[in-house]
Design brief:
The protein has 462 residues and is α/β, with parallel strands linked by helices. The chain has three domains: 214 residues, FAD/NAD(P)-binding domain (3-Layer(bba) Sandwich), CATH 3.50.50; 111 residues, FAD/NAD(P)-binding domain (3-Layer(bba) Sandwich); 102 residues, FAD/NAD-linked reductase, C-terminal dimerisation domain (Enolase-like, domain 1, 2-Layer Sandwich). The chain is built from 14 helices and 23 strands. Helix 1 packs parallel to helix 9, helix 3 packs antiparallel against helix 4 and helix 3 packs parallel to helix 6. The protein starts with a strand and ends with a helix.
Length: 462
């Protein structure tokens, strides 16, 4: 039985980053168990492939809409080669997976390709992909098995014309129409991809607004842009009741304002969220102590140090619920590894930036004005319209803004909401300001280069 200091189950950004840090920083002997590709959902079926598709789709849309204004003309007939578009996406993924593989080798992390099952405290059995098996021992176990797309019990949801986000990323032939069930981050990003490729898109969202977890102004602005600029049909407060095949197409029945409605398209994308992935994590051979690990609605319960109810076993990322983002899993993994080694937490996991890669991009961190009001915190709000930003004008950007929330008395930055080009790159300035306790005046001392999108931050601070 091979012995290690740490066994990590799951090779996504939470798992592989934790494995590398444990080996490099703390000189731990580490094993990483992964039953699919290294990089997990984010690299293979989420963040990276969707953004690669978005990049291609946005370039196509921009040339089609603004090519003449920019002095550019397409050579030949133009159009979309879906197979080549997906080949490019796969090339990007393969390059980054190769990088993760190299990172594991560099840090001497032993990778086991197979399904890891926790048999007892400090013991994991691995059913290897070649049909053999191995038993591993370690002082610590880190569960980082992530999540899988959630499919609700809607009649007809098992139709072959109903895709999850995983399956949608493998679609290599053109479609004319798409229904997206769910107006959250995943749904809006896919709606942006396909609308940019000329597909008729309908979004059906059960909540009163799309991306309901973000600032209301951002939700309203995105709704207007998706409707007016993209031609996307958006239905909110709408509950899907049935999905049925209609010849070569599929019909989605939904209830909106007490009225039964229907929408028909070539495919349906089910994007109502994700659920914790614990398949195969335990078995009939698992000891009673481990099998009795505290769970909550299918998610592993942990304390503030990411320890489960079983001594020596930690868990991070989507499998514990909370904010399901790759950078959150990475931060949690780093903190869990630090705790195993009696070291202080290396990062602030309370300040989490959120990013949506629509056009324009959306990013937020910290409190919104409404959240501050609910918490009884008096605030001052600063806002700048990006319509006056030189870089936005010259690059033909759509409407956008930067909004900053600060404590009324101390002027310490409490939060920021951005809807503009490169918002996802610039939000880290506000994350840093919140973590470091910077004031509006502290941030305003910075000189922002011209012409840049980040100039908008300087203007908002004035």
């Amino acid at each position: 039985m091979e012995k290690y200091d740490l066994i990590v189950i799951g090779g996504g950004p939470g798992g592989y980053e934790a494995a590398a840090e444990a080996a490099a920083e703390y000189k731990m002997k580490v094993a990483l168990v992964e039953n699919r590709e290294l990089g997990g959902t984010c690299l293979n079926r989420g963040c990276i492939p969707t953004k690669a598709l978005l990049h291609s789709a946005e370039l196509y849309r921009e040339l089609k809409l603004h090519g003449e204004a920019l002095g550019l003309t397409a050579v030949g007939d133009g159009g979309i080669d879906m197979s080549r578009l997906h080949a490019r996406k796969d090339e990007v993924v393969d390059q980054l997976v190769t990088g993760v593989t190299g990172l594991m080798k560099k840090n001497k992390v032993k990778v086991y390709r197979g399904l890891g099952t926790i048999v007892d405290k400090g013991r994991v059995d691995v059913a290897l992909s070649d049909g053999s098996s191995e038993s591993l021992e370690a002082e610590h176990i880190l569960i980082a098995t992530g999540s899988v797309p959630s499919v609700p019990p809607i009649p007809g949801a098992n139709s072959p014309k109903v895709f999850t986000s995983d399956e949608m990323l493998e679609l290599d032939h053109p479609i004319k129409s798409l229904i997206v069930i769910g107006g959250g981050v995943i749904g809006c990003e896919f709606a942006s991809v396909f609308s940019s490729l000329g597909v008729e898109v309908t979004i059906i969202e059960a909540l009163p607004r799309i991306i309901a977890n973000l600032d209301k102004e951002i939700s309203r602005s995105l709704t207007q842009i998706l409707k007016k600029s993209r031609g996307i049909d958006i239905h909110t407060d709408a509950m899907v009741t049935e999905i049925k095949e209609a010849g070569e197409q599929v019909t989605c029945c939904y209830k909106e304002k007490d009225e039964i409605c229907e929408a028909t398209a070539d495919l349906v994308l089910m994007s109502i969220g994700r659920r914790a992935n614990t398949a195969g994590l335990f078995s009939d051979a698992t000891s009673p102590d481990v099998a009795g690990m505290e769970m909550n609605r299918g998610m592993v319960v942990v304390n503030e140090n990411y320890q489960t109810s079983v001594p020596g076993i930690y868990a991070i990322g989507d499998v514990i619920g909370g904010i399901q983002l790759a950078h959150v899993a990475t931060a949690e993994g780093r903190c869990a590894i630090a705790h195993m080694n009696d070291a202080p937490a290396p990062c602030d996991v309370k300040t989490i930036p959120s990013c949506i890669y629509t056009d324009p991009e959306i990013a937020s961190v910290g409190m919104s004005a409404d959240e501050a009001k609910e918490a009884g915190i008096p605030v001052v709000s600063k806002k700048y319209s990006m319509g006056a930003n030189g870089k936005s004008v010259l690059s033909l950007q759509e409407r956008g803004f930067i909004k900053i929330i600060a404590d009324k008395d101390s002027h310490k930055v409490l939060g920021a909401q951005m809807m503009c080009a490169r918002a996802t790159d610039m939000i880290s300035q506000f994350s840093q300001a919140i973590v470091c306790g910077l004031t509006l005046e502290d941030m305003a001392r910075t000189i922002y280069p011209h012409p840049t999108f980040s100039e908008g931050i300087g203007e908002a601070l004035k």
